[in-house]
Write a structure and sequence with these properties.
alpha/beta; Jelly Rolls; four-stranded antiparallel β-sheet; 18% strand
């Protein structure tokens, strides 16, 4: 327990109680490196967090010295939550002693101590926010520029894959573009599931340029005109653009938080609405998008594993300060086998459900098989009416009035067919 007092003063563990730190110290290894020895190289797979106990290290990124770290500092923390390549070289300036927590030991440890993970992720999230603000200033951005934000950002997030959020967001973005076409409102649909995104499949898009190609182009001082060739623009809806994910999982590794932050800043100046489909994990890129969101549509199904994961996920989001009315629950009834009352789900998740998507299996299968959208096949379906109501909820006040005046939105469940369905359900 000789490292107990030292660990107490390391910032990433500052929110832990003493009994939690005592448990954590049990999985810490002390490792030594000689002067000039590399702790790891840029591109190596991250497998551990390190805390400097004695000596200093140098951080070198892309061949350029970034800074030196002293005792008490830590590095490599992202390895605890994701196995992505290291983004810098770390080398010992002198003979040093480090405290190491391996990803393998940490994963085993948090199974019996899940609250520790929540506290550490909360710290990492706040650190990512601070770094983003710092980078913003160093890039020459200023507060006046940030205030020029115009786009309304709607992100779709879930605690578990397979809840249908990609299908819903793809339809909603297209539907909103259609509803506000006459007003010239520009809509962007951004697939930010960089590993396994499927928006291009759902929209039947064949477009070779993705965010991967944009990052790899290494453009300097780029603007929106430079970015346009990497966006897919609909032939039938000229106010809808789509930014698709890379065509293979390994290409996701080139996209980082800074890329996302810069792209968001640019997009916010050129679009009226940005729909973002996020992966079901708290990556730094995901957190950057969530931090910029006006509305977070948390999507789930009425399945026990999904509800359980959603409770955990929303608890974490609350600790990350996303529960100020920004988070809105959407239940997708597609394929649900359990008849759980919405009120019970709201009680368990401590949040209000803004809408429930009807289980229209035949319509969804028909749309996916044909490579088209639900609202293109049946614009009067219950699913489409629900989407329109959600669109109304996330629209600006000005656009709400336009949509209402056009008569495009009908109160959910008020249609004749819905009444018939309710009578016989």
């Amino acid at each position: 327990m000789e490292n107990l007092e030292f660990i107490k003063n390391v910032s990433i563990f500052a929110e832990l109680e003493e009994k939690e730190i005592i448990k954590l110290v049990e999985i810490i290894q002390e490792v030594d490196f000689k002067q000039g020895e590399a702790i790891f190289k840029q591109g190596d797979t991250g497998d551990a967090l390190y805390v400097i106990k004695k000596g200093t290290v140098e951080i070198v990124k892309n061949g350029m010295s970034v800074c030196n770290l002293e005792p008490g500092a830590f590095f490599g923390e992202m390895a605890l939550v994701e196995s992505k390549p290291r983004n810098a070289d770390i080398t010992a300036n002198e003979d040093i002693s480090l405290l190491k927590i391996s990803k393998k030991d940490f994963n085993f440890f948090i199974r019996s101590n899940p609250t520790i993970l929540l506290k550490i992720v909360s710290f990492m999230t706040e650190r990512a926010r601070v770094l983003a603000r710092t980078d913003s200033k160093s890039d020459g951005d200023n507060s006046d520029a940030e205030e020029k934000k115009e786009a309304n950002i709607i992100t779709f997030f879930s605690a578990k894959g397979g809840v249908g959020k990609s299908l819903i967001i793809s339809n909603m973005a297209s539907l909103m573009a259609e509803m506000l076409h006459e007003q010239g409102k520009k809509i962007l649909l951004w697939d930010m599931d960089f590993e396994f995104g499927c928006v291009d499949i759902l929209l039947n898009i064949k477009h070779s340029a993705t965010i991967y190609e944009f990052v790899e182009s290494n453009l300097e001082d780029w603007n929106f005109e430079d970015l346009e060739p990497f966006l897919y623009n609909s032939d039938t809806m000229d106010n809808l653009s789509v930014f698709i994910s890379p065509d293979s999982p390994e290409k996701s590794e080139v996209v980082n938080m800074q890329h996302v932050r810069n792209l968001l800043f640019c997009f916010k100046q050129h679009f009226d609405y940005i729909f973002i489909d996020l992966p079901s994990s708290f990556l730094d890129t995901t957190i950057t998008a969530l931090d910029n969101s006006d509305h977070i549509i948390f999507t789930l199904t009425k399945e026990i594993p999904t509800i359980r994961n959603s409770i955990r996920c929303l608890k974490l989001m609350k600790s990350l300060r996303y529960q100020d009315g920004t988070v809105k629950l959407l239940i997708n009834d597609f394929g649900s086998t359990l008849n759980i009352e919405t009120e019970k789900i709201e009680q368990k998740l401590e949040n209000k459900v803004i809408a429930t998507m009807a289980d229209e299996k035949e319509l969804v299968i028909k749309a996916v098989t044909k490579g088209t959208l639900v609202h293109k096949i049946d614009s009067s379906s219950s699913m489409v009416r629900t989407m329109k109501n959600i669109i109304l909820k996330v629209s600006t006040d000005e656009d709400k009035e336009i949509i209402k005046a056009s008569g495009q939105v009908q109160d959910e469940g008020s249609g004749f067919m819905d009444k018939l369905k309710n009578m016989f359900s």
